[in-house]
Structure formats: C-alpha cells, structure tokens
Amino acid sequence: MKLHFESDLTYQQNAITSVCDLFEGQEKWESEMTVLAPAQGALSFEGATGSMPVNPQIPEDDVLLKNLNNVQLKNQLPPSPVLDSHDFTVEMETGTGKTYVYLRTMLELNKRYGMSKFIIVVPSVAIKEGVYKTLQITEEHFKSLFAGVPYEYYLYDSAKPADVRNFATSSVMQIMVMTVGAINKKDVNKLYQSSEKTTVDDLDKPIDLIRATRPIIIVDEPQSVDGGLNGAGKTALDAMHPMFTLRYSATHVHKHHMVYRLDAIDAYNQKLVKQIEVAGLEVQNASNSPYVKLVSINNKKNSISATVIVDIADKKGNVNRSEITVYDGMTLDDETGRDIYQGYRISEIRTGKEGYLTLETPSDTYYMKVGDVVGDIDPMLIQRHMIRRTIREHLDKELRLNTQQIKVLTLFFIDKVDLYRQTNEEGVREPGEYARIFEEEYLKAIKSPAYKDLLPSHPEHAKDVHDGYFSIDKKGAWA
C-alpha cells in the first residue's frame, strides 16, 4: 500500500513558515566552517581542531526577537517581551500532522538557510520507532518536494558510535532520532565517553562532536522529555549546546516563545479533527458502608498515631469523607458518629519501614499499610459499568448511522494490557478480565429487542467484535 501525502494543507504550511520566518534575513550558507582550537579565536570548544560541516550562525538576538514578534503578531499570539532562550514552541492538536510538519520544517530550513544538522529527541522508544517509520514512508514524498536535497536519517544507537561521527562529518543533511533516556544519564551514557570510533581531530567524545555542529534540536512531546523547567531532560538538551530548539506538542506544560498554535478548538473549527464523545462515571452516595483508608503512620514525641480517612456525620446528618487521627484502642463508631462503624476498632499501630495498622471489624481483621483501603467500591464493578455503558452507546450510534453507511468505531484506553489480553506459558493468547467483561456485557446488550435490526450485520461470537493493539515485548509475545 502506498500512502499519499497532501503537500498544500494551509495550516501545516503556516506552521512551517512560522518557524522558518524566525530567521528571516539570514542568507543561505553552504560552505564548511572550520572549527579551530580556542587559542585561534574560533568556537569556544575545548580541544577542537580541524574542520567539519556545521550549522550556520543564526541572526543576533535583537534581530531574532524582532522576527519572533512579527511571527507572533501574524499568528495572533502575545509577543515575547525578551528573548531569554532559543527555545521556540509550536502547539498542534493531536491528529493534525505534527510529525510531518517538523520533518518538513527541517527540510525547509535546509533549503532556505543551509541548516543541516538536526536531532529529534522523543520521550519513549515507541515514539522513536514511530518517527523513524514516518521518515521512511515520507521519504519519496519529501524528495519530490525537495528535489536534489539528499538527507540521511537514523536512530541513535550507543553501540554504533560511528553514526555520531558520520553525523558530525558528513556534508549531507543529517537527521538523528533518539530518546531522552539516551542523553540524560551522564554517568552511564556513552555519549560522554571517549571512543576511537568517534574521534575527529582532538574531539573524542560523541557529545563533543554533536556540540561542535551547533545542532538544531526538535523535541517531540517536551512535557514528557523535560522533566520540568530544570529537569534532567531539559538539562541534557541544553548540554548538547543546540543553536536553537523547536518544541512540538498538543499539550505543552512550559510554553517557550510560542510561534504557532493550532489548539483543539481551532482544529475542530477547521474540520481537521473529528468531535468525540466522552462518558464519565461518578460514584455518589457510597457512604452507606464503612470506608477506611490509611493515609499515614506517625511517631512524634513518643506518641504513635495514624491518620485515616473515614466517612463522618455532622450535626445535621450530612456525611463527608474526612481525615482523622486515631490511636490504639479507638473505636470508629465513636469517632465518626455513625452506627455502621460499630465493631470497627484500631487494635494496633506499628511504626517503622514495615509499619502497619491493625483494623478489627465484625467480620475480619485487616493489616493495613499506607494507602490501603477497606470498604471501597470494587474497582472492577466500576469498569463493568463503564464497559456496559460504552457498548450501549456504540450500538445506539450504529442504529442512527447504519442507514448512512457510516462505520462506528469505539476505542478503550486501558491501564494495563494484561487486563485485556494475556499470554500463557505456551505463548497462547488468552482474554483478560476486561475482555471477559466486554463479551459478557455485549451478549446481554445485543439480545435487547432495541438492537434486533443490527443482528444481521454483527458477528455471531462476541470475541469477533473487539480486538486490541499493543506494543510487542522483547520476546516477541504480546505483552
């Protein structure tokens, strides 16, 4: 199957142009720059000698700030009063082609200004593989748009230091994709270790070669890469000495010099994404059974106590979930003013690393560690209600849309894969708890007379109407 990419989508062109216009006035630069030792007055780079192709210098900060403000005003964004960093933010709603945009932006920067050393940093291996796949499937498309512009791309692999050497010394445009985990642990990171395979003149550490090129860094999902304004990820990015950093996400936490924004409302209004419906479940009036949660165990001034959350009745009879302090021997019906806690007694509180609280009840004795709950609603019961509601919403929508030949798709995002699908010792897939609940609730729902018109189009077996897509573990089995 061959994919077709549209090259003239206005909102994508605007995002690309907004970044490229930051460097307006800079002429295209195609020559190699010599990296000299500090004594010769070139780059302040320890021990650097010789020559290698590097990214051209960008305009001075006063010009860059002026260009930035022009772009921001054009895009109806608040202008940045000062240029306190070379970090620039592009906000694009999920599903609008963010990866395509930043890949094409790199090629446009090369075309307009001769920039040729790019590093894409992502938060996870899964996203890294996704970016690499996009580079593969867009290669023919981009080569038709940027004829005569060769470029190389590869995944950073610490076992292949020669790739970093090629990144630094090649005159061909370079795109290297890596995870933040590959750069934020100096003590074990091979980027910071000397290697004969990466030596160029006096530079023998991969990180020094990268720094020498004045790389342009693209951060995909920076809120998951940075680790905060001064987090390990952000520190590691800055330690690569980028000429500038472009940050792409739909959900930025820290917005450094916004140059383009296509938020959820913009994307929906421009019919770029579909509207979705979300159903929520809220548990109300669940205070008719005893509830106890252990928050902490305290040992202050030789007084041992514990903090627990219970349901307390006020003078008007209203019940509120609140924290109280308890001691050995306390009975919870007295503390809460509620008869349902009759027989609930704190029999012992132990401190230390293995600390616990012993709660005696009429039916059992519980040894509670911090965070444990007694009397909470069964979480699987909540999941069953949500699955049941979703199935009925799906079938109702099918009834409305079948005559228009519109296919209905419902997605479940789950917390653990093995709750939906498991793999036994023989490698055979088996349904998890969520899958079993789904099939039970589906069979109940489809028997309703309300859905009789849907029966001819539905598979005979419940297992045929659902499936899951997950990453594959290292052994090749489904996780």
Number of helices: 12
Q: What is the arithmetic mean of pLDDT?
A: 85
Overall number of domains: 3
What topology, given as strand order, has the largest sheet? 5-6-4-7-8-3-9
CATH superfamily of the largest domain: P-loop containing nucleotide triphosphate hydrolases
Helix content range: 25-40%
CATH topology of the largest domain: Rossmann fold
Query: How many β-strands, per DSSP?
Result: 18
Shape: globular
CATH class of the largest domain: Alpha Beta
Termini distance? 28 Å
Biggest β-sheet, characterized? 7 strands, parallel
The CATH architecture of the largest domain:
3-Layer(aba) Sandwich
Rounded to the nearest angstrom, the radius of gyration is: 30 Å
**Which consecutive residue ranges, at least 5 long each, have pLDDT under 50?**
31-50, 472-479
What share of residues are in beta strands?
15-25%
Question: What class would the helix/strand composition place it in?
Answer: alpha/beta
> What is the succession of H and E elements?
HEEHEHEHEHEHEHHEEHEEEHEEEEHEEH
